[in-house]
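Long-time lurker, first post. I've been practising inverse folding by hand and with some scripts of my own, and I keep getting stuck on stretches where the structure tokens seem ambiguous. Below is the full token string for one chain I'm working on. Before anyone asks, I'm not after the true native sequence, just a reasonable design that respects the backbone. If someone could post their per-position residues I'd love to compare against what I wrote down in my notebook.
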């Protein structure tokens, strides 16, 4: 009987090597952040995930793609940020696993692993495998990335970077593609996802144009028409995006949040911010989720001088690289171009300076460091630096170890709100917004004295802090000091007239004082300002229920349930039907 033939399919060695490389790099971006899987929701996570009706039901898909990222908060959520991929990701994760922080952190870790691999794949095309491996390793371990990976609300930077790198890689491969139209379609699709992730993606057409005309190997042998055919689809997609935003959102640029900030202070502040960002890339110490912004108003400001020094050194470095290592000068273009959109303090939110904004720009920094290390390590290193070259592997190992340890330790700062806020206040003592949030933690666990201390201290440095004022109103209400509570509520509403919860707390105080007609008007105002706020509708429903207006209360609770199901609304509806 003839022996049975056995068939065995083996992948080519190159494919197996690619798979192993991908796995190693993915795990390198995954494992330093494993301890974040057990962290809780913190800071903005509660608003964007736990209290966001868009995340709880697929019926809000249209709103996700046609409104701003904070539109679920009604008038209080006025912004021009458009991040549908972020909210869609939250929605899918919530539908799969519910409001469990573990699943949201896991999604961030997967995205970070993909970003590390894409950094390697991109830089291998530019500078070879050794440089790419070192750069990807530095990118995976750099402590400046902990905010982007450990904080659920910062997932936009991970999504942006993954789609941004993928789009640029597809752009680079256009000349090698057999089916150009398919390659362009894939590039445009990836760019569309980047555009829907974060506004920084609009720098990509500029980056591609600069690379095409000044850095691509065949730039001297291709016609202008051929160059345009490669990056023109990106400009077309950007124009389409601009048009859609103008129609759907009524504008393209972010809302000016600091209209009183003069332009000369804006420019000086941008220089100071550049110095700060370069400093954090080079020396990632004293990191914080929140930095208090102080505008720069004169050239002798130390922060401005540091920024000018950094810009000067980078300009000199760029000229040297342009002449001696031409392609590497593109790393500096990458850093400054991708960082540019967050340097205008006039349209930035409260956190003008944010470590998460460095996630994408740091690709260029890691490339520069890795190339320099390999250059010093190589046999053709300058004679003066050859003794140092022998120490490069050990030096890289030490840096990787320090980066990794610092990253793992810092991940724990996101395990709870209290830990996070206390860490911020150790370095940013005048962060009155964070201090008012810390007071809220004390209040929730019944430490009213500690809560009052934090809120009063927050108001001493920020007398118009609407959150601290409203919290003081709630505290005075609990203490039955209603006149003082009213005073704090009105001060909070003068500072922020569309502050929904401040209207609710004011209405509750008015009820305790027997001023029910005024109270009802405030409840109605809160529900009108934030139509999707279950807190506003449930509070108004309770007011109507206590007044014996059961039919009106039923309508209010059913409206609340229709917006976003809550136990309180269903429980109250049961009480109403029981009464009937």
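-- Answer (accepted) --
I ran through it position by position. Result:
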């Amino acid at each position: 009987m003839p022996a049975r033939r056995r068939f065995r399919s083996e992948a080519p060695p190159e494919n197996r090597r690619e798979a192993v490389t991908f796995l190693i790099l993915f795990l390198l971006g995954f494992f330093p952040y494993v301890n974040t899987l057990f962290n809780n929701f913190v800071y903005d996570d509660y608003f964007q995930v736990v209290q966001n009706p868009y995340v709880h039901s697929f019926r809000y898909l249209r709103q996700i793609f046609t409104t701003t990222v904070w539109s679920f908060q009604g008038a209080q959520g006025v912004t021009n940020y458009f991040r549908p991929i972020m909210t869609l990701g939250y929605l899918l994760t919530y539908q799969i696993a519910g409001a469990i922080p573990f699943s949201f952190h896991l999604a961030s870790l997967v995205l970070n692993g993909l970003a590390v691999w894409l950094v390697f794949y991109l830089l291998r095309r530019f500078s070879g495998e050794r440089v790419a491996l070192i750069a990807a390793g530095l990118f995976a371990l750099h402590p400046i990335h902990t905010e982007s990976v450990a904080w659920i609300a910062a997932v936009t930077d991970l999504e942006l970077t993954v789609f941004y790198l993928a789009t640029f890689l597809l752009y680079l491969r256009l000349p090698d593609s057999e089916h150009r139209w398919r390659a362009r379609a894939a590039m445009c699709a990836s760019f569309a996802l980047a555009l829907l992730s974060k506004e920084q993606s609009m720098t990509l057409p500029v980056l591609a144009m600069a690379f095409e005309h000044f850095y691509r190997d065949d730039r001297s042998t291709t016609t202008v028409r051929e160059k345009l055919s490669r990056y023109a689809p990106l400009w077309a997609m950007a124009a389409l995006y601009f048009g859609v935003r103008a129609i759907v959102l009524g504008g393209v640029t972010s809302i000016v949040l600091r209209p009183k900030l003069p332009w000369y202070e804006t420019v000086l502040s941008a220089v100071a911010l550049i110095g700060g960002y370069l400093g954090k890339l080079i020396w990632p110490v004293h990191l914080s989720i929140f930095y208090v912004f102080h505008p720069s108003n004169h050239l002798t400001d130390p922060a401005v001088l540091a920024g000018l020094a950094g810009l000067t050194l980078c300009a000199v470095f760029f000229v040297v690289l342009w002449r001696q290592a031409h392609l590497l000068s593109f790393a500096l273009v990458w850093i400054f171009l991708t960082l540019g959109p967050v340097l205008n303090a006039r349209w930035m939110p409260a956190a003008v300076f944010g470590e998460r904004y460095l996630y994408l720009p740091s690709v260029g920094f890691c490339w520069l460091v890795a190339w320099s290390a390999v250059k010093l390590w190589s046999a053709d290193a300058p004679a003066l630096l050859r003794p140092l070259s022998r120490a490069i592997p050990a030096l890289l190992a030490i840096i990787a170890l320090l980066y990794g340890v610092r990253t793992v330790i810092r991940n724990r700062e996101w395990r709870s709100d209290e830990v996070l806020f206390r860490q911020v206040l150790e370095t940013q003592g005048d962060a009155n917004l964070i201090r008012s949030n810390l007071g809220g933690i004390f209040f929730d666990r019944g430490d009213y004295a500690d809560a009052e201390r934090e809120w009063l201290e927050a108001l001493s440095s920020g007398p118009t802090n609407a959150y601290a004022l409203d919290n003081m109103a709630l505290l005075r209400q609990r203490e039955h000091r209603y006149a003082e509570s009213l005073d704090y509520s009105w001060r909070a509403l003068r500072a922020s007239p569309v502050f929904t919860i401040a209207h609710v707390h004011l209405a509750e105080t008015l009820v305790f004082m027997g001023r029910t007609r005024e109270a009802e008007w405030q409840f109605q105002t809160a529900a009108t300002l934030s139509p999707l706020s279950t807190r506003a509708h449930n509070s108004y429903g309770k007011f109507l229920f206590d007044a014996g207006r059961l039919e009106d209360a039923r309508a209010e609770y059913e409206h609340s349930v229709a917006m976003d199901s809550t136990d309180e609304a269903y429980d109250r509806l049961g009480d109403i039907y029981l009464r009937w």
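A couple of notes from the structure itself: The radius of gyration is 27 Å. DSSP finds 28 helices and no strands in the chain. Happy to go over any region you disagree with.
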